[in-house]
Amino acid sequence: MTTLRDAAMKSKAWPFEEARRVLKRYEKKDPEKGYVLFETGYGPSGLPHIGTFGEVARTTMIRRAFQMISDIPTRLFCFSDDMDGMRKVPDNVPNTDMLRQHLQEPLTTVPDPFGQFDSFGAHNNAMLRRFLDTFGFEYEFISATEFYKSGRFDDTLLLAAERYDAIMNVMLASLREERQQTYSCFLPISPKTGKVLYVPLKNVDAKNGTITFDDEDGQELTLPVTGGHVKLQWKPDFGARWAALDVDFEMYGKDHSTNTPIYDGICEILGGRKPEHFTYELFLDQEGQKISKSKGNGLSIDEWLTYAATESLSYFMYQKPKTAKRMYFDVIPKAVDEYHQQLRAYPDQTPEQQLANPVWHIHGGEVPASDLVVPFQMLLNLASVAGAKDKGGLWGFIRRYAPEASPETNPALDQAAEFAVRYFNDFVAPTRRFRAPTDQERRALEDLAGRLAAWDQPADAEALQTMVFAIGRDHQFEPMKDWFRALYPGASLAPIRGRVSAASSRCSASRKPAR
């Protein structure tokens, strides 16, 4: 009998493929550190964004897949590069004049412009942790500042001083000639100004573990490489961190891919084993342009979660991570409905199919049942047609379609109704403009009103749909969808096309001559 673990070892779902690559690292013996380490990185110069969510969510999916195929313990570190110097003042924070006085200082020494934490770095780290906790991610937070100052990085830094020339050979080969003249992998932190200094080094003393340089005022200074007196430039820091922590897996965006040989080379120079990497494609906006925090194009995570549940975003992140995807408002309804389609399919699937189902990876095998008995796209159309002001107005229509449903028994449907109304009021209502009907449409609508007023049969949805279709045919709408566009202006016809087709068949059958 095939077990779930057996099925997982053969699954072609990408998290299992990545998990098997990680497991192969330890096919001969278990890790000496006692666990497999997954890592994600975060630059705390700004607030967490949708890319941060994507990295942690996808890494978590791979970690869960690994736990299915192996008994080796795992850990996930979320590493904050909060010792980086603040290179520019963000546009979206208060007290910008104060911040300008602290340019190039480590983020964990820059005062918090919000006045809530000990530093700007601490503020953004707190936002990151709250962000990750909101989504229920299991992780361990590591601050680069604490990592450097506590001595956890000391052995690696001393080794970097000893193997300075080898590291520099890797780095210099990747730099323009003019940059080569001043580059050093070590960045001293001025004991006078507290700034991270991008200065050439006059000497690296491997025996004593020190560097010598000229401070900003021209005075020659010597500092130990340990204890948080220096930090590494970001590319060497990447590889050094992998070596120091013995990282087994890290993913990053395609924009990092050209640096992968640099990261790997420095990791190995410092005695580490390069981790397994996973490079994902970047997100695009509606026009196919790369999403940029500075441009503000594309969707933010807050915008997505204003109009749909977290699980739909996780579903979007699961799909084809190595393919560039456009991320804008129109993808949300599709993601919601496909997610619930997968939930409904899950109970009847074989173990192999379940492990290939995105919802297994979203929920770590604890897959809930779907109570979204009305598709989200239909709710959006209904909100638009009805001009709904609140979800209570939508429920009057929902109960006609699904009389057994209620906000209490169908909480996901209730939430989706609220999202649909919010989407309508934010995007559709402010720009909606009504037009006068054409003569053909006016005659057909008057006919419809008359027939509805005279209707004395039970309120049967199929019979009424057939009658509406018959009116369109009687008034010679060609194609027939023009009639339904007149009835549902601005709404997608996808949810009603199947009904139109069925009604057409019944109407045509009723007009066939008897034999």
Describe the structure.
It is a single chain. The chain has 515 residues and is an alpha/beta fold. Among the domains are: 4-149, 3-Layer(aba) Sandwich (Rossmann fold), CATH 3.40.50.620; 283-363, no CATH class; 376-431; 439-511, no CATH class. The chain is 48% helix and 10% strand. The protein contains 23 helices and 12 strands. It has helices spanning 4-10, 14-24, 50-69, 96-100, 120-134, 144-149, 154-162, 164-172, 177-180, 234-245, 260-269, 301-307, 310-318, 331-345, 351-356, 358-363, 376-386, 391-401, 411-428, 439-453, 461-474, 481-487, 494-511, and strands at 36-42, 74-80, 140-143, 186-188, 203-205, 210-214, 220-224, 230-232, 249-253, 276-280, 283-284, 325-326. A 5-stranded parallel β-sheet has the order 3-2-1-9-10. The protein has a 3-stranded antiparallel β-sheet with strand order 5-6-7, with no helix packed on it. Helix 7 crosses helix 10 (234-245), helix 13 (310-318) crosses helix 14 and helix 17 packs across helix 19 (411-428). The longest helix has 20 residues, at 50-69. Residues 492-515 have low confidence and may be disordered.
